[in-house]
Write a structure and sequence with these properties.
- The protein is mostly helical.
- 80% of the residues lie in helices and 0% in strands.
- The longest helix has 129 residues.
- The N terminus is likely disordered.
């Protein structure tokens, strides 16, 4: 899964490289990740090598020759000693087979490898031992290229200017010979054209040729690393530092991903980063490049890397020491701040304790206030209840006093009317009719009916929903149903008197002209019909 993630990241980076001018940070981040996972790329190359080794044996044959050449190609930029071993094995097999063409091919490959890794005299000796006339036509370009590599390296690294010019002339001679022996469309021919255009200042032509090569190179391969390395050299010629750094980074990235141990891009990139004061990244790249060089085991590469590694390492160590000094200063500062923080915490703790005590006192005061508020609420409730009762009492008094005064006036009028009627009957000597009238109960019944009608009307004026609310306290089938001409019946009058505060059955009996037992029976019957018998009369008292 990790390998798939890395490859996806690589794919996305390469597909977005064209989107902006020199996205160097993205490439450097990818190099960092690739260095972290470099063992994975090494394992891939080792797997290919081990697969080839499975088929090796000591029998001299074309197949064994090709296997050794393939192993040489795998080791050529991976492990120098093994590459030398397998190319010498291929020479040995070709010699045993008396195959001059293959023997010459292997010796030319060996000479090129030696010329690339600093063994210049050995490379020239090998090439000098080959008869030019016996070199097959298809190997002529490789033959000249091996000479070009050896003398070109000598000319580049020789410090004596006179000797350097001498070898440059020899190099140019072999370059011309190589150019004439190559097909115009070959990769080497394009490299020579690009190099000549770069060296003569024709940078547009150099870029055009490099573009052509870059189109056919695949990212993550040694071929791509070489093309981008050459492109960085063109940018160096033009003075474009960012362009050079960018393509060096691409080259280094492909070297890492192809598990190429013989490389120059990464340590050159590290040197550029060092010059830009990116010490940490420069140091990491140089250390990795040095480890790869040690693995490749070519003395020239070690010498090339050693100087810059030493310089970067010293700077890095100085940076580390500077950081240590800063850390010590920070530690002293942090210690001082810690002491201040401790004092601050002690002060805050004391303040918190004081606040806690004050909060506790406030809480106690709040609790006392709550208790007082509760008491006040209860008093207010009692006052409201009392006020309501007084209001109801006042209303009842007002209504019944008005009714009482009206009744008194009415009864006075009736008594006066009765007096005049008695006088009239006596004057007319109609005492027998008067006696008959006074003995009749009908007159008194009318008076009591009028009294009860006035009582009912006055009570319902104060409690207009009394009948409905009483029925709500009774079972559905026990509800009181009045006649069409009734305001209240006897049961409701008893309950009305209870609501007015008259609970004594004897007082109720006197008012309603019934016996006390009859009143008890009425009250008991109504309670038995109630939903809640025990608190029925209390519920009656709550009717508003």
């Amino acid at each position: 899964m990790k390998r798939v993630t890395v490859f996806i990241s690589i794919f996305l980076i390469y597909n977005n490289l064209i989107a902006s001018q020199y996205p160097i940070d993205s490439v450097l981040n990818l190099i960092d990740k690739s260095i972290e996972n470099h063992e994975m790329y090494t394992q891939i190359r080792d797997a290919r090598i081990n697969e080839l080794k499975k088929h090796l044996n000591k029998k001299a044959s074309v197949q064994q020759y090709e296997l050794n050449v393939s192993l040489f190609k795998e080791y050529r930029a991976y492990e120098c000693d093994s590459a030398l071993y397998y190319i010498n094995q291929s020479i040995k097999i070709a010699h045993q087979m008396t195959d001059k063409n293959r023997e010459y091919d292997s010796r030319i490959k060996l000479a090129y490898l030696m010329g690339s890794t600093g063994m210049y005299m050995e490379a020239v000796d090998i090439l000098s031992g080959l008869k030019r006339s016996q070199v097959p036509a298809y190997l002529i370009s490789d033959y000249y290229q091996a000479y070009l590599q050896a003398y070109g390296e000598v000319a580049y690294y020789t410090q004596d200017k006179v000797i350097s010019e001498k070898y440059k002339a020899i190099t140019n001679s072999y370059r011309d010979s190589l150019r004439n022996s190559l097909p115009p469309s070959s990769e080497m021919s394009l490299i020579l054209r690009e190099t000549r255009a770069k060296n003569t200042g024709e940078t547009e032509e150099a870029f055009r040729v490099n573009d052509s090569r870059l189109m056919h190179a695949k990212p993550g391969t040694s071929g791509y690393a070489l093309v981008t390395y050459h492109r960085s050299a063109i940018y160096e010629r033009t003075g474009d530092v960012e362009g050079r750094k960018y393509y060096l980074a691409l080259s280094a990235l492909s070297d890492i991903q192809s598990a190429t141990k013989d490389h120059a891009s990464l340590w050159m990139l590290a040197k550029m980063l060092y010059n830009e004061d990116e010490i940490t990244r420069s140091y990491n790249y140089m250390r990795f490049s040095w480890n790869e060089t040690i693995y490749f085991n070519a003395r020239l590469r070690q010498l090339q890397s050693a100087l810059i590694l030493s310089l970067i390492d010293k700077t890095y160590q100085a940076t580390i020491e500077n950081q240590k000094q800063k850390l010590q200063n920070y530690l002293i500062l942090i210690s001082a701040l810690t002491v201040l923080l401790v004092f601050a915490l002690i002060f805050i703790y004391r303040q918190i304790k004081r606040l806690s005590a004050a909060r506790k006192h406030l809480q106690n005061a709040n609790d006392q206030l709550k208790e007082l508020n509760e008491e006040l609420k209860q008093v207010n409730t009692c006052l409201q209840s009392t006020n309501q009762e007084l209001s109801e009492s006042n209303q009842i008094k007002e209504v019944y006093i008005g009714r009482f005064i009206k009744l008194c006036s009415t009864y006075i009028d009736k008594l006066d009317e009765f007096r005049r009627m008695v006088n009239k009957k006596i004057d007319s000597d109609k005492t027998s009719e008067l006696l008959k009238y006074t003995r009749s109960q009908d007159a008194f019944d009318d008076i009591f009916q009028e009294l009860y009608a006035n009582f009912d009307s006055a009570f319902l004026r104060i409690f207009p929903d009394f009948v409905e609310k009483v029925n709500n306290l009774l079972h559905e089938e026990e509800k009181i149903i009045l006649k069409s001409d009734e305001l209240l019946n006897t049961e409701l009058r008893i309950l009305a008197l209870v609501r007015l505060g008259i609970h004594d059955s004897s007082q109720i009996a006197d008012f309603l002209r019934y016996s006390v037992n009859t009143i008890y029976n009425y009250r008991a019957k109504v309670k038995n019909r109630a939903i809640s018998r025990d608190d029925f009369e209390d519920s009656i008292m709550l009717i508003k």
